[in-house]
Amino acid sequence: MEKQRDLLFFCLVLACSSSFLPWVSSSSAEGGPEKAPPKLLFVFGDSYADTGNTEELSVAWVPPYGSTFPGEPSGRFSDGLVLTDYVASYFGIESPHPYRLRNHVNKTVLQHGMNFAYGGTGVFDTMAKEPNMTTQIDFFQSSVEQNVYTKHDLSSSVALVSLAGNDYAAFAMKKGKPEELPSFIASVIDQLIHNLKRIRGLGVGKIMVTALGPLGCLPQLTAVSSFKNCSSKWDSIARLHNLKLRQSLQELKTNESITGSSCLSSSSSALTVLDLDSAFISAFDMLRHRSGELSENPLKPCCVGMTAGYSCGSVGDKGVKNYVVCDHPETSFFWDNIHPSQYGWRAVYSFLGSSLHHLL
Ligand SMILES: *[C@@H]1O[C@H](CO)[C@@H](O)[C@H](O)[C@H]1NC(C)=O
Ligand SMILES: *[C@@H]1O[C@H](CO)[C@@H](O)[C@H](O)[C@H]1NC(C)=O
Ligand SMILES: *[C@@H]1O[C@H](CO)[C@@H](O)[C@H](O)[C@H]1NC(C)=O
Ligand SMILES: *[C@@H]1O[C@H](CO)[C@@H](O)[C@H](O)[C@H]1NC(C)=O
């Protein structure tokens, strides 16, 4: 049990940069008919976006997860709301229902879209056994084929794709060689781009994809320096990934304006990168400059294991808690060793507004 939870230690999500790349050539973008905000949200990716898909064994389903919202574990890797919930609220959409629980609800709740994200996953298979992003898109595709969503629904939908770094955690745990890293990053990006094209091919009008956050600043990696020093090795992995992501998206745009293939799509199809890197950094800075007794180290997580073998949510025999929770989760950026708290996500979200605005 404990082992299984630990495997999920690197479950992530995210988003936030300002680059806005219209999929379409500028001629068809201008004066395009679709200016209405999206009405449905489809979500793919990992724990930054998951709102209940992982099975009950994951930490997201044990206390103190969910203690701020909804007051009990809800399958979110946080004390409360996560990125998906804030992005949905931005568009005035209800946070979409988890795919795994789709058969347990009145089908009308599926009209807001569906969340296919599973904590711990990546574009490739990771240490988590949950469905990778390809399989998540397969689930979406079968929903489309079963006519759960009409063409019109899909054209007024937006997708959130979160890739927070589990592929790289798996690479490290499988003892991948440093010299193989650049080509591994390239393969992650190629697979991600392929996935984005597939989602778009299924009729989704607009897509947000997260850039990696500052991986080296996750408590998991700063713990060795008492949460003071970010790991430059992991930060550089994130920077290279983000650079390649932007280059590939630019290339895709160029390719499509040459072939004119995007003109086939009538809607103002768009792709926005949610730059979690700048949003996390801005949030850290904001917290550092906070006044008075609250100005604690922003890299320090709220909920931690008592000793090295334990993590947030670890419980021993007879329900003894092997973790401690800070006094003020409502002012702590990180909830556990990997994930922002609800407060953290709200801060990140406040820095994502301009990228989200492009999708309206
Ligand atoms: C599902 O919810 C809708 C709207 O809340 C309601 O009108 C409908 O009767 C419900 N259907 C079932 C089968 O409960
Ligand atoms: C995703 O998972 C499926 C099912 O386990 C597997 O067949 C496929 O190879 C995986 N895809 C990638 C890109 O790793
Ligand atoms: C953290 O970084 C500072 C400044 O680079 C350095 O002096 C210090 O030794 C580092 N601390 C640890 C624990 O690595
Ligand atoms: C752009 O087109 C080139 C040449 O056809 C192709 O090799 C490349 O993969 C395409 N890039 C993207 C991101 O689709």
TrEMBL record:
Hydrolase recorded as keyword: yes
GO biological process, one term: lipid catabolic process
GO MF term list: hydrolase activity, acting on ester bonds
Coiled-coil annotated spans: none
Keywords: Hydrolase, Lipid degradation, Lipid metabolism, Signal
One family name in Pfam for this protein: Lipase_GDSL
Tree of life domain: Eukaryota
Family matches, as InterPro entries: GDSL, SGNH_hydro_sf
Signal peptide range in chain numbering: 1-26
Keyword Signal: yes
Membership in a protein family: Belongs to the 'GDSL' lipolytic enzyme family.
Record-given protein name: GDSL esterase/lipase At5g03610-like isoform X2
Species of origin: Rhodamnia argentea
Encoding gene (name): LOC115749792
